[in-house]
Amino acid sequence: EANYPAQFISEAVDQTRGWFYTLLAISTAIFNRNPFENCIVLGHVLDKKGLKMSKSKGNVVDPFEVLDSQGADATRWHFYTASAPWLPTRFSIEDVAETQRKSLSTLWNVYSFYVLYAVLDNFNPLDYKDFVSDNVMG
Asked: What are the Aminoacyl-tRNA synthetase class Ia domain coordinates in residue numbering (predicted)?
């Protein structure tokens, strides 16, 4: 009972008439209450041509290959920025590589620039812990 109703459930759009409806119908009939408090319906992940991925079509992307070549952060960031979660999302290793190049590489370069000159100048942020800025942003 401590976990009922579920606080959050998430499934793909094809589960709206299956899993979501079954949960709701059975829970309402037996317990007269909702089985979940919050629900998000996710769109499908499509191949780079916009077709549903399928082993029989041979257009499935191996997730471990993507993680090994691009990394988990780039993959997560791609899904976060590619489209709204409830819409279908096109996916390819090339798209993740582009996301990595445009977003995460920029952040890495900013960090690398800072570290390079902080080391050259023997910068220690603890020397400035009492610094108060008049700048609203910082």
From this structure: 3-82
d(CA 77, CA 72): 8
Residue 96 burial class via C-beta count within 10 angstroms: exposed 0-12, middle 13-18, buried 19 and up: buried
pLDDT of residue 61: 92
Question: 95: buried, middle or exposed (CB in 10 Å: 19+, 13-18, 0-12)?
Answer: middle
**Lowest pLDDT segment from 14-18, 30-34, 48-52:** 14-18
Residue 35's pLDDT is 93
How far, in Å, CA of 113 to CA of 96, rounded? 24
Tens digits of residue pLDDT in 45-91: 999 999 989 899 999 999 999 999 999 999 999 999 999 989 999 99
Strand pairing class (36-42; 6-12): parallel
Domain boundaries, the chain: 1-42, 60-131
Enter the tokens of residue 45: 């992940």
**Is-contact 78 99, C-beta < 8 A?**
yes
This prediction's pTM? 0.65
